[in-house]
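Hey, I was hoping to borrow your eyes for a little while. I've dropped the whole record in just underneath, so have a look:

——
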Amino acid sequence: MNKFYFIILIIFVFLFTINNFLAFSDDGTIPQNVDSCNTLNTTNGFYTLTQNVTSTSTCFTISANNITLDCNNYWVVGNDGASDYGIDNWVGAIYNNLTIKNCNFKDWDIGIWSGGSYNNFININSSSNQGNGIRIEDGRNYNLTDINIFDNGQASASSGLYIENISYSFYRNIISYDNTNVGIDITRDSNFNTFNNLYVRNNTIYGIVAELSSNNNYYKDIVLFGNKAGFIVNALSNNNQIINLTSYANLNATQGHGIWITNSTNTTLKDSIFYNNGKEGIYLMYANSSLVYNVISYDNGNNGLLIAGSSHNNITSANITSNGDGVWIQYIGGFYSTNNTLYNITSVGNSNGVYFGNSSYDTLTYSNIYGNTGYGVRLRGSINTLIYNNLINNSLNGVVNNTKNLNYWNTTSQSGTRIYSSGTNIGGNYYTNSTGNGYSDTCTDSNTDGFCDSAYDIINNTAGCTSNNCDYLALSNDYVDLPPIINITYPINGTTYSNYVTNLNYTIDTASYCWFGNGSVNYTSVVAGTNWTNINISIKGSNTWTLWCNDSANNINSSIVYFSVDNTVPTLNVTSPVNSSYYNSSSILFNVSSSEEGTGSIIPDIDNSLVSWWRMDDTNGSCYDDET
């Protein structure tokens, strides 16, 4: 052998031997510096990595509870070997209260694989692994903060962060991208977790999956884009809350949904935006009792919101623009969609604004449906749909493809805020178009109550109902705002009462508040329709009471009642004939005076016989009656 190469070989063997001799070995002291891979087995141990380390097998095997490893931002690098892990707290044994921080893992089978509970992973990068970047299973009370996971699944489709049967844990500031399966996979009974500030992009399959009875989790402040699909809630994963989600450019042609909620109940989705996705912006499939609130969905490849085989969902305050159909409620796979409520929906520039397909007992109300290129509202095979108090402003406002099915286009006339046009009551819908000559614009409203005199037939697009899809209270734009009509029923106008009046009763057609007074005393307002009792402002003699009422627009009307009170018994004085006197005459003068002036009557009774009726007035207080 060449002498030079022999010397080099001797030096290499020497250095390798020295390196192995000096390699880190846990000696049980606290703390310890670490310069190579090995087993960490000191309870309550604190280890600090002092350099980058590499290994052809598992680097750090955890063999005690309450261990902390601070990598000091150094790299822990493998050689892509199968069943080799940067951190192993699973294969050999499982320990609790593990803290791994400030570490960079790459080129392992799995960067970190851990079971147990009360574990903390802080400021971790895990990339270019054959399987998962981080995998945690069968525990609780984890804390993962400031995690960056990317380019994992080199050997087989694997998720960046894999969470299985983990509960009551916190995940903050997670970035997961360019993984060959799911960015963040939450599966099998992972419950009561909190996820905050997640950024998940360009993963081969889905951005985030919550599946297999992963219940009662809270997700907030999430951005998803460039995945096959954005967010999947699946397989009996119930009672999850998703707040402030932005999901866009998930462009798969068959599954590129911004969010896909399927086979799950009681999901809350709010304050979220979906756009430029390949399929649906929001997709509820076999999903029941969900609340979708304050969402925006636009420029998606198919529908802004698709509800399929799903029931009892509440969609409130949704702005849906420039999609295939705006909202489509449909039958799928043997399941009908029923009892879904659409409230305060804005559907603009879609094909059909709202499309009910083979659904029943759904409600559309307080919504703006305008500028859609197909129909504003389309019903195909749907029955018992309730559509009221909507502004429907399209070239073609409505169509019913199954004309035998009964649907309702108005509710009863009742007090409420109209979606469009003036008026105090709601009932049906306002039908118009871009030129302002729709049915509601041109109908006759002879009594100016804000409703068209004739029903609007949706199927035939005519005034007067000849089908079973009619709006009997179509809104007009001819409302005249009249003040309330008041009728005072007690006291009665022009009546004289023998006792003080202590009540005020009245009727009113519609109003908000009423108040009254007599010119010197005024009573504060009460809710309209409330009578006054036990009041003490009436006076002896003439009384004038005024009652005022206003409506919600503060139109005020009044009514006045005039009445008198006379509660003094009059006294009489007979001056002729004189008491106990004897008269020998065929005629006797009766002379009577009264203590009160005014209209009244005196009835004399002579020898128990009514002989006359004397009416007294202000100028003649006596009468003469000639009796024979």
User: Anything to note?
Assistant: The radius of gyration is 44 Å. Residues 11-21, 621-628 have pLDDT under 50 and may be disordered.
